[in-house]
From TrEMBL:
Keywords: Flavoprotein, Oxidoreductase. It comes from Streptomyces viridiviolaceus. Residues 495-593 form the Fumarate reductase/succinate dehydrogenase flavoprotein-like C-terminal domain. Residues 473-492 are annotated as: Disordered. This is Fumarate reductase/succinate dehydrogenase flavoprotein subunit. The keyword Flavoprotein applies. The keyword Disulfide bond does not apply. It holds the Pfam family FAD_binding_2. Gene3D superfamilies: FAD/NAD(P)-binding domain, Fumarate reductase/succinate dehydrogenase flavoprotein-like, C-terminal domain, Succinate dehydrogenase/fumarate reductase flavoprotein, catalytic domain. PANTHER family: SUCCINATE DEHYDROGENASE 2 FLAVOPROTEIN SUBUNIT, SUCCINATE DEHYDROGENASE [UBIQUINONE] FLAVOPROTEIN SUBUNIT, MITOCHONDRIAL.
Length: 646
């Protein structure tokens, strides 16, 4: 087999978004030699696209805020399916992580008295999002990168080599986590430009690869979000948790077609933007569900007063959690009250002066001007739901971020499950990745130090089979000779069919027959994907890259479809038309996906049968002191009777 470059590190971090960089900084500061790998250019990750801000209960704008209120909001947003210990740690530690960013050079917008400013967002009781205009993610990544450079300069002064203790491998894709028995031994990947294979040996691997949005046709996600980390963990033997919960952000662009799905930040509504249908009606007042009735305004007058006097008025219903707003928009369009291009209207032009719009929402102003020729200071935007975020992910230990069942494997950020339950609140992702990125880096470094005397062995057979798997698309012609063969398949076509299937059949509103149809289509696509063929050679070959991504997209799509079919209720980011209510019996149920072939050798499984096994597990009871933060009347809406009596 091909000669593969090999290097030894203590901790390998896969992904250079906020979670990956924060993990890498922590691991390096704890003394671990740390490598970071990312699929695109260093600095280009979803984190950089985050607009609205970082949720942290600092209480700068309303002193009533504290971690307990943030915890409550997060649990409500997730409809109580959150891994509660994660929600607790997140609410407690987020402010420290924001202040720490400031000490590393982040420049947040300020309040009049000079504190870090915080803005309103859906589902957050108080103004809580620390922000930098609508370009918060850019500042977050810039700051973390600056910190990495500072650490590398420190290392250079000591060792003469900038990369002796912290090195970034950019434009490299990891395709397998390698193991020594049950334990992690490193990763296998390829350089996207040269196609050269490489192995980084390490006792600890942190997966921080972000989301899965590219498995859906209409999405705010960019090209690299093909569920790689989710698939890497599955293939390494770790379970995925509650994959049915996919967030459809209520406001994506709907026009022109080439930009359909691009995000319109929630800050637009947080700063006063309102949603209207084709009759000009502010329809969200008709969609406040019972569980939120006492917290949201009933009239436009009350909703408008809230912006100036939040202590004596209830919030506008445009600021309900995202799942509620997305469903409402979907219903309005279905009822024939949509905008000309199949969305609804989002208006800031009649709500604030043009110069305020341009100052507070500069990216949105430019985005609409340049991509749709719409001046949002003078006319409304047209918006509709777009696949945005996955709440499901690698099942992890709340405190250490260790992936279940695979010693040495850690996960943080969007790729990890549990924290957000069935629905994430806006702003809670940036804080999640700082809090749990740090924890993952810390525990991965500690684990690696414990393995110092007995580092895991690298298995050459695994390396060979990872290389063979990666080369398979170049020999698709040969596969045609197999009895089950057909013509070689174009990976672009397979991607498109998969995205359309997930969008139409496992999208924002789900029905049993459609999900079954999706599973049948996925089975067909799995068979065809074995013949996904590419021409040419390994030097920058995007067709080959797509062919390799397909394995991951098919795995995560099957997880989403199977889990969505199994959960016969509607909760957060999972809406069943045939089971429209939330069912408290399902509150205590987690759905875990594992690989049908535990050796991770996908070729051995029958592609028609499916590759995923689904199991139910009972969630850990919520600690009584945390339950005591809620009124009993509220808990009754979420918990089953047995849980309440306990
Ligand atoms: P990412 O930032 O997504 O980074 C993933 C990294 O993994 C990348 O470096 C990628 O190249 C790498 N990678 C992936 N696969 C591989 C592989 N196989 N091999 C090697 N590397 C790989 N959240 C908020 O809290 N507030 C907001 O205002 C907000 N706004 C958003 C706006 C947009 C347009 C989008 C898309 C998301 C927004 N979110 C927001 C969500 C948030 O940005 C993401 O959930 C978060 O940034 C994910 O961070 P991460 O570190 O987990 O992964």
């Amino acid at each position: 087999m091909s000669v593969v470059d090999r290097q030894e590190w203590d901790v390998v971090v896969v992904g250079a978004g906020g979670a990956g960089l924060r993990a890498a900084i922590e691991a390096r500061e704890r003394g671990a030699r740390t490598a970071v790998i990312c699929k695109s250019l260093f600095g280009k990750a979803h984190t950089v696209m985050a607009e609205g801000g970082i949720a942290a209960a600092m209480g700068n704008v309303n002193a009533g805020d504290n971690w307990q209120v943030h915890f409550r909001d997060t649990m409500r947003g997730g409809k109580f399916l959150n891994q509660w210990r994660m929600a607790e740690l997140h609410a407690q530690e987020a402010p420290q992580r924001v202040w720490e960013l400031e000490t590393w050079g982040a420049l947040f917008d300020r309040t009049k008295d000079g504190r870090i400013s915080q803005r309103n967002f859906g589902g957050h009781e108080y103004p809580r999002l620390a922000h930098v205009g609508d370009r918060t993610g850019l500042e977050l990544i810039r700051t973390l990168q600056q910190k990495i450079v500072a650490l590398q300069q420190e290392d250079h002064r000591e060792t003469g080599d900038y990369e002796s203790r912290l090195k970034v491998f950019q434009e490299c894709t990891v395709t397998r986590v390698l193991k020594d028995g049950r334990q992690v031994s490193g990763v296998f990947g390829y350089e996207r430009e040269s196609g050269r294979f490489f192995v980084l040996q390490a006792p600890a691997v942190v997966i921080a690869t972000g989301g899965i949005g590219k498995s859906f046709k209409v999405t705010s996600n960019s090209w690299e979000y093909t569920g790689d980390g989710h698939a890497l963990a599955l293939l390494a033997g770790a379970p995925l948790l509650n994959m049915e919960f996919v967030q459809f952000h209520p406001t994506g662009m709907v026009w022109p077609p080439s930009v359909k799905g691009i995000l319109v930040t929630e800050s637009v509504r947080g700063d006063g933007g309102v949603l209207r249908n084709s009759d000009g009606k502010r329809f969200m007042f008709d969609y406040v569900p019972d569980v939120f009735k006492d917290k949201y305004a009933e009239t436009e007058e009350e909703a408008d007063r809230w912006y100036d006097d939040p202590d004596h008025n209830r919030r506008p219903p445009e600021l309900l959690p995202r799942d509620e707003v997305a469903r409402a928009i979907n219903a309005e369009v279905k009822e024939g009250r949509g905008s000309p291009h199949g969305g609804v209207f989002l208006d800031v032009s009649t709500r604030m002066p043009a110069e305020v719009v341009q100052r507070r929402l500069p990216s949105m102003y430019h985005q609409f001007k340049e991509l749709a020729d719409v001046d949002i200071t003078a006319e409304p935007m047209e918006v509709g739901p777009t696949c945005h975020y996955v709440m499901g992910g690698i099942a992890v230990d709340s405190d250490t971020a260790a992936a279940r069942g695979v010693p040495g494997l850690y996960a943080a950020g969007e790729v990890a499950g549990g924290m957000h339950g069935s629905n994430r609140l806006g702003g809670n992702s940036l804080s999640d990745l700082l809090v749990f990125g740090r924890r993952a880096g810390l525990h991965a470094a500690q684990y690696a130090a414990e393995q110092a005397g007995r580092r895991p062995r690298l298995d050459d057979l695994q390396v060979d089979s990872a290389a063979a798997e990666a080369l398979r698309p170049f020999s698709a012609e040969a596969e045609v000779e197999e009895p089950s063969g057909g013509p070689p398949e174009n990976p672009y076509t397979l991607h498109q069919e998969l995205q359309q299937t997930m969008n139409d059949l496992v999208g924002i509103i789900r029905r049993e027959p459609e999900m079954k149809q999706a599973l049948e289509k996925l089975a067909e696509l799995r068979v065809r994907a074995r013949r996904a063929g590419v021409e040419g050679h390994r030097q920058f070959n995007p067709g080959w890259h797509l062919a390799l991504d397909l394995r991951n997209m098919l795995l995560v799509s099957e997880c989403v479809a199977r889990a969505a079919l199994e959960r016969t209720e509607s909760r957060g980011g999972h809406t069943r038309e045939d089971h429209p209510s939330m069912d408290s019996k399902w509150r205590a149920v987690n759905l875990l996906c594992t690989l049908a072939d535990p050796t991770g050798g996908l070729a051995a499984t029958d592609p028609v049968r499916g590759q995923i096994v689904l199991e139910r597990e009972t969630t850990e009871p919520i600690r009584p002191d945390l339950l005591a933060l809620f009124e009993k009347e509220e808990l009754v809406k979420y918990l089953a009777e047995e849980e309440l009596s306990e």
